[in-house]
Write a structure and sequence with these properties.
495 residues, alpha+beta, Cytochrome Bc1 Complex, Chain A, domain 1, 2 domains, six-stranded mixed β-sheet, 16 helices, disordered N terminus, disordered C terminus
Length: 495
Amino acid sequence: MKRLLYSLLVCLAFVLVNLDFSSAMAQQVTPGKYTPKHYTDLEFKPVGEIKLPEYERYELENGMIVYLMENHELPLVNGRALIHTGSRFEPASEIGLAQLTGGVMRTGGTLKHPPDKLNQMLEQRAASVETSIGDTSGGAAFEALSEDVDTVFGLFAEVLQQPAFAKNQLELAKTQSKGGIARRNDDPSEIARREFKKLIYGENSPYARIPEYSSLNNITRQDLVKFYQQYYYPNNMILGIEGDFDSAKMKALIEKTFGNWKANPNFKKPALPEVSQAKTGGVFFVNQPQLTQSNVLIGHIGDKFASPDYPKLDVMNGVLNGFGGRLFNEVRSRQGLAYSVYGYWSPRFDYPGMFISGGQTRSDATVQFVKAIEEEIKQIQTQPITAQELAFAKESTLNSFVFNFQDPAQTLSRLMRYEYYGYPKDFLFTYQKQVENTTVEDVQRVAKENLQMDKLVFLVVGNQTAINPPLTKLASQVTPIDITIPGTPKPQASN
């Protein structure tokens, strides 16, 4: 019944949205009243001031940080936890450990509820509890109808505090991970992304290394338990809850559920891995004879969101990238070299990101495509952008930014993320102001200072025999990359 109620609510919301959308479209496409516009003719409404919904932040005695944000629009409650951990802290001999730990925390059940029972209890309530560990953080989340929040929140807390790490579920997770290894060369775009990160950060860097059959075979249940015990403490966690609840009652529930979880007074966040660019220039190639087009990536190491120039670099992104950007207009529309082309400065919160450009092009257009992107990068450094380009880039950047705060859940997630990485509370507001104040001169300056032509790394995944002219037109030396999967079973000889 509860599941039916939830489904009906979702369907009703969908119908209302579509009715509103259909009505709006009917008004826009009335014959004689609607004329398609070029992107340069588009007008953006002024971006208003971002106003945060009311929320409360406090801390339990055990050090757990809590955010509460009431939202009574639907009878739903969502919660999310951030734990300071990540695959970047796993031992080099056990790559894949963090991902396995984050997955089996949930699939392996708890000390009180085995996996089947836990799944049954959640399914009966149309609720969910999920866990994961990514590169830079661990996460856990729950969703429940407001009437079931006490029960579901209790199960959520169990998963965080008392995971069983069932051995059979670990073996299943390892089998699934090995299946991913076996298929990792199926998609040329994935090959390009994976190998490009190795070129930028180094193949042994925590930000580029990948699991192998051998590293997965090294991982035991006790390794999962040990990794969990290193990081899962209330004084290493941020909890955020948004939805249909009363704050006073929720505070009491949180205290009852998490208040007795003991802090680790000796816990210290591990030092972040050092980052530097591994390959400072060069052309690299992955031969895939079956392909009819090339996947191209060009770039170098970047910086963090904390960089004072980040807002200006984001405006630069708006000039280069996306619909109406220079790369789209020149490389795709005018020269017809690609359907997909992009280029943008991509920072990270607490380690250097990348400047990355590229796309997909015909095999016989590969060299021309690369040179066209190079030319656009040079031009934004040497020639001032127009006032029209600046205005368009600023407006599109600000409008995209506002979409991050469309609903309370999004806003809460962003506030938690800023605290997790140690960013100031006013970061989002200062960003908006700095974008608004960006000038033509600012864009040219940050392009000159941050886009380093001599450090650009070029990676092509494509068909060697079909690339004509050859990649040696770009550099005298082209370095091949071997993507053979270590430990792949050899095919059995037929009798």
